[in-house]
Amino acid sequence: MDSERIQRAVRELLEAIGENPDRAELRDTPEKVSESYQEFFKGVAADPLEYLQESFPADSTELVMLKDIELVSICEHHLLPFTGVAHVAFLPDKKIIGLGRIAKVVEVLASRPQLQENLGNQIADAIVEGLNPKGVLVVLEAKHQCVASRGARQPEVNTLTSSARGLMEKPEYRQEAMGLISK
Ligand SMILES: [Zn+2]
Which structural domain, as residue segments, surrounds residue 176? Predict the structure, then answer.
């Protein structure tokens, strides 16, 4: 990532809103924004499938559910954060993975300019590609700063999205997973 370029752009932005980027209090702002952006967007150059390579054999085909995975992402329309939790349920097909790896896939894909709907789909597709389970369901619950602090100004609104693949597209499986999520 090009830190110098981010810093120049932030100076430009400050000037464009009528501010003086050389004002003492703003002097470190371009560098701080650059550091934040490097954290927010570290997933742009990363491959989520890298975290799904070390699977191991397992007999179980019962539902595996990871609830409340921390979710921090940046909406690609306003470059403002949306934050909340991700729930990932899958039905293994003789292959299982260290469960921290699923959280890593969520983190990598969230660390890009995103739309919540696309993010859920991308997490589901990565798990299908990397783990080939019988089914996967990804539910995201997030509050969007672009809804909270501008436009509609609805700070308490939670946006829920779900992305189902394979057997999880069937109501009976989806219901079991959704029941565990809402517990
Ligand atoms: Zn937005």
Answer: 53-181
